Amino acid sequence: MFNDMLDIRQKQLGLGIKSRPVEIGYEVRCITPHAYDLVYCTELGMGVYKLFKQGITGCMVYLDLNGNIKSLYLKDMQDPKTGKIPPRGVNIHQDKVNMIFEYIMHYITPSDYEAAKKYVPDPEKYDFKKILNW
């Protein structure tokens, strides 16, 4: 229903864009939403409103390392020579990131290997920290 409303509005605005709803966040991460997601999404939503009120559009919204709302344009992320957007890393040594990995995320650890053999032959291959060489 929302997608239909969006298509109608885009046509009214004369935009030649076709969209479709896709939910990927939790499926990609293979975890259920938690409090961090609620807070982060709320901050991003408020950021959209703040930037819109300032007349800033056509961009993505992000929070900088100090928690300030910023605009980000794809053109600013592109490599000037190739036009491609290079991957961006995450500082895995930040307290916030470590707290998520240690206390919120669920993944196979050595203590799970024996029980996990019921589902996969070599659970160690699926150990999150071993995959990332942590």
Assembly form of the protein: single chain
Q: Could you tell me the strand content as a percent range?
A: 5-15%
Low-confidence stretches: none
Structural class: mainly alpha
Order of strands side by side in the largest beta sheet? 1-2
Distance between the termini: 44 Å
**Mean of pLDDT:** 84
Q: SSE order in H/E notation?
A: HHHEEHHHH
- Count of all domains: 2
- The rounded Rg comes to 20 Å
Principal-axis shape: elongated
Tell me roughly what share of residues is in helical segments.
40-55%
Task: Write up this protein.
The structure is a single chain. With 134 residues, the protein is mainly alpha-helical. It has 2 domains: 24-78, no CATH class; 89-134, no CATH class. 43% of the residues lie in helices and 6% in strands. The chain has a two-stranded antiparallel ribbon. The chain is elongated.
In a few lines, what is going on in this structure?
The chain has 134 residues and is mainly alpha-helical. Helix content is 43%, strand content 6%. The chain has 2 domains: 24-78, no CATH class; 89-134, no CATH class.
Keywords:
elongated; single chain; 134 residues; 6% strand; mainly alpha; 7 helices; two-stranded antiparallel sheet
Task: Spell out the blueprint of helices and strands.
Blueprint lengths: L1 H11 L12 H5 L5 H19 L6 E4 L5 E4 L1 H4 L17 H10 L8 H4 L11 H4 L3
Antiparallel strand pairs: 1-2
